[in-house]
Design a protein that fits this description.
The protein contains six helices and 15 strands. It is an alpha+beta fold. It folds into two domains: 151 residues, no CATH class; 203 residues, Exo-inulinase, domain 1 (Jelly Rolls, Sandwich). The strands form three sheets. Strands 1, 3, 4, 6, 9, 12, 13 and 15 form an eight-stranded antiparallel β-sheet that branches. Strand 12 and strand 13 form a beta hairpin. Helix 2 packs antiparallel against helix 3 and helix 5 crosses helix 6.
Length: 388
Amino acid sequence: MRLLIHFVTLSFLASNLAAEGAFYGDPPDAHHPWAIHDLNRPQPPRVEPGTFSSQTEPGKPPSDAIVLFGGTEADLSKWQSAKNPTEPTKWIVQDGALLCVPKSGYVRTKEEFGDCQLHLEWAAPAKPAGSSQNRGNSGVFLMGLVEVQVLDNYDNPTYADGFAGSVYGINPPMVNALRKPGEWQVYDIIFRRPLFKDGQEIDPGALTVFCNGVLLQDHTPLEGIGGHKARTKPRPYPEKGPLQLQDHGNPVRYRNIWYRPLPARAVEGGTNGYLTEEAASAKKKEIASNIRLDATKLEGKAKMYRLLESLCYESNDAALKESTAMVATFLAEVKQIPPAKIESRKGDIMELNNAVQYLAKYQFIPGDFAAKGELERIIKEQGWDKKK
């Protein structure tokens, strides 16, 4: 259904090719399957935004978020202990929050996922106890591996790469943006796992972290998984893993935990960004095929332009032959128009000339494409080529 709606939209737009879109921006190339301002590029899906949290009420997640903890007892069914073999968690729900029961062990989601936008809120005890790493300590482990530190550092120094918002053991946060103990702290995390191919790292992965709306980690590269005391090295991650929360002996609370999966990067099959020549070629072939399929549902000028447009993505003898014939028919009709009335067809003629000039400039049509010279002759005769 989505594909059908997409092509209906494109069919409508095909009747106004002078607008942004076809024959307008730089064309597809060896590493980019889309033209600049390409109307064939899929429209972003609609997501209804959520609402911001207050200290008294958690916000509402966006419409496409997958909720891991929304504040009910029933949400505990989505979690389990991180022990092996696993067992039901001993963490509890209290006043709408997921509360760590000290010495009960780590807790993790039953669901596993990879690259994501993760949102969660946490609160250290209102009455601080202990110092350094022994005050309001917990942790958020993406895929159960790399930790974004949770710690009450409101007025509590510790080693920098173990500070709240650090990528633990790897990189300190840029600033300390914590609210007072007992207040809700908001983490928004963008996680990209490391990618390896044939044993070689092709993307180190990264963590971007905001705390209470303040940037703490700016696309920080991952160096393995980090950890306590030992320096880690780059290593492959699995495709998916659970979200894990740490029991460090402190009754830290969590609420409003949700995530949104992120699309694949270009290096792993995504179609946005700088693609390999092989991937870009395959995608251009697919786009051209879809445009030609769309053209079969159209007639007249709209069909002619869609066939011509398909040549920007893939050379095709049948599409070139049919579109050339349709252009020739159009020009034959123009020749029958009385000189006194040809001005009424100026828009159509100039629009076709724009398309043909574009296709010729980027060598998508043969150099001897007859219509090019004929259109230039008509435009020159009418004086439409002169700037006013």
